[in-house]
Design brief:
Layout (H helix, E strand, L loop, with lengths): L12 H31 L5 H28 L8 H7 L11 H28 L3 H23 L4
Helix pairs in contact: 1-2, 1-3, 1-4, 2-5, 4-5
Length: 160
Protein backbone atom coordinates (compact mmCIF):
# COMPACT_ATOMS: atom_id res chain seq x y z
CA UNK A 1 0.00 0.00 0.00
CA UNK A 2 1.38 3.40 -0.93
CA UNK A 3 0.99 6.84 0.58
CA UNK A 4 -1.10 9.55 -1.11
CA UNK A 5 1.47 12.34 -1.30
CA UNK A 6 3.39 12.45 -4.62
CA UNK A 7 7.07 11.50 -4.45
CA UNK A 8 9.59 12.77 -6.99
CA UNK A 9 13.02 11.43 -6.04
CA UNK A 10 14.02 10.02 -9.41
CA UNK A 11 12.66 6.52 -8.82
CA UNK A 12 9.44 5.67 -10.62
CA UNK A 13 6.37 4.63 -8.67
CA UNK A 14 6.52 1.18 -10.23
CA UNK A 15 10.14 0.72 -9.15
CA UNK A 16 9.42 2.10 -5.68
CA UNK A 17 6.53 -0.35 -5.36
CA UNK A 18 8.70 -3.29 -6.48
CA UNK A 19 11.58 -2.30 -4.20
CA UNK A 20 9.23 -1.85 -1.24
CA UNK A 21 7.73 -5.29 -1.91
CA UNK A 22 11.20 -6.82 -1.78
CA UNK A 23 12.12 -4.86 1.33
CA UNK A 24 8.86 -6.01 2.92
CA UNK A 25 10.00 -9.62 2.42
CA UNK A 26 13.38 -8.66 3.94
CA UNK A 27 11.59 -7.02 6.87
CA UNK A 28 9.46 -10.14 7.40
CA UNK A 29 12.51 -12.42 7.30
CA UNK A 30 14.42 -10.12 9.65
CA UNK A 31 11.55 -9.87 12.13
CA UNK A 32 10.96 -13.62 12.06
CA UNK A 33 14.68 -14.20 12.68
CA UNK A 34 14.58 -11.61 15.48
CA UNK A 35 11.70 -13.42 17.17
CA UNK A 36 13.35 -16.83 16.75
CA UNK A 37 16.67 -15.53 18.12
CA UNK A 38 14.95 -13.91 21.10
CA UNK A 39 13.05 -17.14 21.80
CA UNK A 40 16.29 -19.13 21.69
CA UNK A 41 17.97 -16.57 24.00
CA UNK A 42 15.25 -17.14 26.57
CA UNK A 43 15.19 -20.92 26.27
CA UNK A 44 18.73 -22.12 25.55
CA UNK A 45 20.17 -24.68 27.99
CA UNK A 46 23.19 -26.92 28.20
CA UNK A 47 26.97 -26.61 28.45
CA UNK A 48 27.10 -23.66 26.01
CA UNK A 49 24.35 -21.76 27.84
CA UNK A 50 26.37 -18.68 28.81
CA UNK A 51 28.06 -18.28 25.42
CA UNK A 52 24.86 -18.76 23.42
CA UNK A 53 22.68 -16.72 25.78
CA UNK A 54 24.99 -13.70 25.40
CA UNK A 55 25.53 -14.23 21.66
CA UNK A 56 21.80 -14.54 20.95
CA UNK A 57 21.15 -11.32 22.88
CA UNK A 58 23.68 -9.46 20.73
CA UNK A 59 22.06 -10.88 17.59
CA UNK A 60 18.45 -10.07 18.50
CA UNK A 61 19.43 -6.57 19.63
CA UNK A 62 21.05 -5.91 16.24
CA UNK A 63 18.01 -7.35 14.45
CA UNK A 64 15.68 -5.09 16.47
CA UNK A 65 17.56 -2.07 15.11
CA UNK A 66 17.65 -3.53 11.60
CA UNK A 67 13.89 -4.02 11.31
CA UNK A 68 13.41 -0.34 12.08
CA UNK A 69 15.90 0.70 9.40
CA UNK A 70 14.28 -1.56 6.81
CA UNK A 71 10.76 -0.37 7.68
CA UNK A 72 11.84 3.27 7.50
CA UNK A 73 13.34 2.69 4.03
CA UNK A 74 10.02 1.24 2.89
CA UNK A 75 8.29 4.36 4.24
CA UNK A 76 10.84 6.65 2.53
CA UNK A 77 9.89 4.95 -0.73
CA UNK A 78 6.30 6.04 -0.08
CA UNK A 79 4.87 2.65 0.86
CA UNK A 80 3.44 1.26 4.06
CA UNK A 81 5.65 -1.20 5.95
CA UNK A 82 4.08 -4.51 7.01
CA UNK A 83 3.84 -4.73 10.77
CA UNK A 84 1.61 -7.60 11.84
CA UNK A 85 2.43 -11.23 12.58
CA UNK A 86 -0.01 -12.28 9.85
CA UNK A 87 1.81 -10.14 7.27
CA UNK A 88 5.22 -11.37 8.42
CA UNK A 89 4.13 -15.02 8.24
CA UNK A 90 2.82 -14.56 4.69
CA UNK A 91 5.94 -12.68 3.52
CA UNK A 92 8.75 -14.52 5.33
CA UNK A 93 10.81 -17.34 3.87
CA UNK A 94 11.74 -18.43 7.42
CA UNK A 95 9.40 -20.95 9.00
CA UNK A 96 8.39 -20.86 12.64
CA UNK A 97 10.05 -23.52 14.80
CA UNK A 98 7.70 -25.38 17.15
CA UNK A 99 8.83 -26.21 20.65
CA UNK A 100 12.27 -25.64 22.10
CA UNK A 101 15.10 -27.31 20.16
CA UNK A 102 18.39 -28.38 21.73
CA UNK A 103 21.17 -25.75 21.72
CA UNK A 104 23.02 -27.23 18.72
CA UNK A 105 19.79 -27.31 16.70
CA UNK A 106 19.12 -23.69 17.70
CA UNK A 107 22.48 -22.71 16.25
CA UNK A 108 21.80 -24.70 13.06
CA UNK A 109 18.37 -23.08 12.67
CA UNK A 110 19.85 -19.62 13.16
CA UNK A 111 22.51 -20.31 10.52
CA UNK A 112 19.69 -21.24 8.14
CA UNK A 113 17.78 -18.10 9.12
CA UNK A 114 20.70 -15.76 8.50
CA UNK A 115 21.37 -17.42 5.16
CA UNK A 116 17.68 -17.01 4.24
CA UNK A 117 17.90 -13.28 4.99
CA UNK A 118 20.96 -13.05 2.74
CA UNK A 119 19.11 -14.81 -0.11
CA UNK A 120 16.13 -12.48 0.27
CA UNK A 121 18.39 -9.40 0.29
CA UNK A 122 20.22 -10.61 -2.83
CA UNK A 123 16.92 -11.22 -4.63
CA UNK A 124 16.02 -7.52 -4.36
CA UNK A 125 19.20 -6.24 -6.04
CA UNK A 126 18.01 -6.48 -9.69
CA UNK A 127 15.14 -4.00 -9.22
CA UNK A 128 17.23 -1.79 -6.92
CA UNK A 129 20.04 -1.60 -9.48
CA UNK A 130 17.61 -1.03 -12.38
CA UNK A 131 16.12 1.92 -10.49
CA UNK A 132 19.54 3.30 -9.45
CA UNK A 133 18.32 3.21 -5.85
CA UNK A 134 21.66 3.61 -4.10
CA UNK A 135 20.11 4.02 -0.66
CA UNK A 136 18.36 0.64 -0.84
CA UNK A 137 21.47 -0.94 -2.40
CA UNK A 138 23.55 0.33 0.52
CA UNK A 139 21.04 -1.04 3.03
CA UNK A 140 21.05 -4.43 1.28
CA UNK A 141 24.85 -4.55 1.14
CA UNK A 142 25.10 -3.82 4.86
CA UNK A 143 22.49 -6.47 5.70
CA UNK A 144 24.20 -9.08 3.54
CA UNK A 145 27.59 -8.40 5.11
CA UNK A 146 26.23 -8.65 8.64
CA UNK A 147 24.17 -11.81 8.06
CA UNK A 148 26.96 -13.60 6.19
CA UNK A 149 29.36 -12.83 9.04
CA UNK A 150 26.84 -13.92 11.67
CA UNK A 151 26.11 -17.18 9.81
CA UNK A 152 29.86 -17.87 9.60
CA UNK A 153 30.31 -17.27 13.34
CA UNK A 154 27.36 -19.52 14.20
CA UNK A 155 28.59 -22.23 11.80
CA UNK A 156 31.94 -22.20 13.60
CA UNK A 157 30.14 -23.36 16.76
CA UNK A 158 28.96 -26.48 14.92
CA UNK A 159 32.46 -27.64 13.92
CA UNK A 160 34.28 -30.32 15.91
Amino acid sequence: MKTNTPINTGISETDRTDIAAGLSRLLADSYTLYLQTHNFHWNVTGPMFQTLHVMFELHYTELALAVDIIAERIRALGMHAPGTYAEFVSLSSIQEVPGVPKATEMVRLLVNGHEAVVRTARSIFPVVEKASDEASADLLTQRIQLHEKTAWMLRSLLED
